[in-house]
Fold this sequence. Notes:
Number of strands: 8
Shape: globular
Helix content: 25-40%
Mean pLDDT: 93
Amino acid sequence: xxxxxxxxxxxxxxxxxxxxxxxxxxxxxxxxxxxxxxxxxxxxxxxxxxxxxxxxxxxxxxxxxxxxxxxxxxxxxxxxxxxxxxxxxxxxxxxxxxxxxxxxxxxxxxxxxxxxxxxxxxxxxxxxxxxxxxxxxxxxxxxxxxxxxxxxxxxxxxxxxxxxxxxxxxxxxxxxxxxxxxxxxxxxxxxxxxxxxxxxxxxx
Length: 204
């Protein structure tokens, strides 16, 4: 049975970029099964622009979930709670995905059925448009326990990680009481018990 993939996109006052982010998901060579755009109480035109963009998406594929301002952890957690897919793939509202991201994620899920977490490289693009390939997978040794490797330094990028939905829920999702590093905290908790598959493929 093919695993269902939910994409969770948190947004907050991203009127200039949020629709471009969503467009890179809608342009995937293999569409996800569900896209949840969770807005963290934007006060600009983010919601209105997203609502217009969703009109052009396949029926029922995208759900826009507006809310009050509670921070990125709470915003992502709402997406985790609402997700109907077997896997949750995170995409920050100002990041972009390569067109084959979801297709390659499906291949990785099939190739590593024992994995609970799948992560990959990324490109970092400067304000001047210079692209830097960040080889995040080089920091991971599959022959060693994940926790001590990750404890020395975070080599997970939020927009480059997918987690089984049941796994991230069991781990407690993001700690909403933390003012920062909510993602790193979750990755460390995941690393204590669950298995990672890491690859060299990348997103922008």
